[in-house]
Amino acid sequence: MPIRLKPDFPATSVLESEDIFAIDNSRAEHQDIRPLKLVILNLMPNKIDTEIHLLRLISQSPLQIDVDFLKVASHEHKNTSKNHLDKFYLEFSQVRESCYDGLIITGAPIEQMRFEEVDYWSELVEIMAWSQTSVTSVVHICWGAQAGLYYHFGVEKVPFEEKLFGIFKQDIEHHFRLFRGFDDRFWMPQSRYTGINEEQVRQKKIKVIAKDENERSAILISEDEHDIFLMGHFEYATDTLEKEYLRDHERGLDTAKPANYYENGEIYNYWRAHAQLFYHNWLNDVYQITPYRLERIRELQDERKLGS
Fold it and tell me: Per the residue annotation, which of 53, 140, 226, 233 is the catalytic one?
């Protein structure tokens, strides 16, 4: 939430230079407040686990948040009951005419497939196109980030020699608003077989705002700041990587133990605080820039595209 300050308060200019929100009395007295409306496109097979992970991160905000869950209609969902999906999930046709303050597009364990081979790719493209005019801000996670970078900017995937799996240190490249309260270095879980073409990223209107120690992009943002791309999984619970490791071995895969994860046989969570900060910063950012009347989002996004 923004700080309310008296006119000409000396600290205001410093706070503004650090992207810390401060509002004057006039704006505070006329400020309209309503719940933020988020929609989560959940592409993960175990949807209930992902629901818990993401809701855990966004639920502690002082803002009231209304959340809709979205599923792709062009895919058979085998790991979550039809009753759960019918009761709690919407299809794109039901939200197409709506506007939202924020959209989260999750990852999916399909990064070794070509994008065009994914059975719901055309539907996902339609949703990503809609998000450019009907949503104030979009967070793409892991495969969702790779899909977004490919669709919006033509950035290709590149295969790794082995699965990038574990908790890895990330360095902040640019002190963007999403990093308010962050240390200069933070940890983020990673679980993927592919990365992105870093040379192509450098040629596009994309800012890399965090990298790992091997110069791999960790967090990217579009030049107009509308789309955020998280290559890892801030939302993971403490034991998520262990469950995935055991599941891989049950399937006969020779996945190595997750890096930087076990210490004397115990699991230590190095990313929880920064995960909470990141999503709270994102929600606060959205709260500051989204219009009170949701239908105005389309007008503002049209202005954004004309100015870019």
Answer: 233
Question: Is 142 part of the annotated catalytic residue set?
Answer: yes
Residue partners of 37: CB distance under 8 A and separation at least 6: 65, 66, 68, 99, 100, 101, 102, 294
Quote the pLDDT of residue 182: 96
Is 123 noted as a catalytic residue in this protein? no
Claim to verify: residue 3 and residue 86 sit in the same structural domain = no
What is the pTM assigned to this prediction? 0.89
Is the model more confident about 11 or about 218?
218
* 190 or 79, higher pLDDT: 190
Cβ density class 215-239: b for 16+ within 10 Å, e for less: ebbbbbbbeeebbbbbbbbbbbbee
Backbone angles phi, psi at 306, to 5 degrees: -65, -30
Please identify which of the residues 111, 142, 152, 226 carries the catalytic annotation.
142
The amino acid that residue 50 corresponds to is T
Q: What residues make up the domain containing 3?
A: 1-31
Residue 235 is a catalytic residue:
yes
Contacts of 182 (CB under 8 A, 6+ apart): 172, 274, 277, 278
Tokens of 187: 């940890």
Domain membership of residue 10 (yes or no) is: yes
22-47 pLDDT, tens digit per residue, is 445 554 444 567 889 999 999 998 89
Q: Identify whether residues 141 and 26 lie together within a single domain.
A: no
Average per-residue pLDDT for the chain: 89
Residue 79: pLDDT band with limits 50, 70, 90 = confident
Kindly state whether residues 131 and 69 are assigned to the same domain: yes
- In the set 51, 111, 235, 244, the catalytic residue is 235
